[in-house]
Amino acid sequence: MKLAEALQERSDINKRISELRRRLENCLLVQEGEEPAEDPMDLLNELDSSTERLETLVASINKTNCNTKVDGMSLTELIARKDALTLRHSAYKELVYTAGNNTYRARGTEIKVKAVIKAAELQKTVDSLAKEIRLLDNKLQETNWKTELVEK
Predict the structure, then answer these.
(1) 151, 150, 148, 152: which is closest to 2 by C-alpha?
(2) Is 74 helix (H, G, I), strand (E, B) or coil?
(3) pTM value?
(4) pLDDT in tens, 66-76
(5) CA-atom Rg of the chain in angstroms
(6) Contacts 24+ apart (CB under 8 A), 77-82
């Protein structure tokens, strides 16, 4: 199995677990004398097997991410880099928005507020970060499809 396939399965299992939780909540309590729409024990068994599979899958994904090197860095390091860049990108985008806002003044005697950093300068950084994130994501995706999952 390729790492990318394992990541897709992990996503599917997480969705399945959420669905099972909702279904369990819907059939856990019934009016006296009524039967639930589904057997809660069957759903619990399915929830247990799904979480066990998720545990195994996540361990294998993490092991693979630690052992796989790209440009001298592990996938774990590349993912951490991407997460940090994404956080920085988000913060800079908010700064661009704030710096670009011109405060409305009804009269010339009111206090004028101006940005201390030019929005255009911040925007260049935002664009650069977006490009770096995109290239890093492409590298991660490519590696995920080429890398075999390290099974326990």
Answers:
(1) 148
(2) strand
(3) 0.84
(4) 999 999 999 99
(5) 25
(6) 78/136, 78/139, 78/140, 79/140, 81/136, 82/133, 82/136, 82/137, 82/140
